[in-house]
Amino acid sequence: MGQIGADRIMRQLDEAEGYLMLEMPHRALQILQSREDWATMKFEASLLMGKAFRSLGKFREALAPLEVAAAHRPTDLIVAMELGWCYKRTQRLAQAIDALERAAREHPEEALLHYNLACYWSLVGNVARSVPALLRSLILNPDLREQIATESDFDLIRDDPVFERVVSDVAPKT
Known about the structure:
elongated, mainly alpha, single chain
């Protein structure tokens, strides 16, 4: 592929990303689906396609391109978060947890990653894994404590004494 072809691919990907930023995922998908082969930009095209499907609420459809992106860059934080989001919403919590656990090993300082892990562990009823992930997220970003009271993902473990004790210790004081 020549430089002109590579430049054209970059412009198309930039255009698709722009439409996503403008919250126009349908238009982004039109661009992304206009080519079968994105040559050297397979990761970028797959990630953008996954994001477009996710923003349309088409979580199952988002998984295939996101998994392609993950195959190209297994430690990419954005891909892991997108995969976790979509796996959760397709009732594949074990895969959501796995995607975020892998990402947490590579990106241990990402508070939202640990917070989402706490949510996913809670959804499977695992207080022993949820609480440490929640505490880690709060150490990294204390502002996340404000979300705990209204986070429905914690409903399954909300009455657990360990969870109650941790939440009462970290809850914002009113």
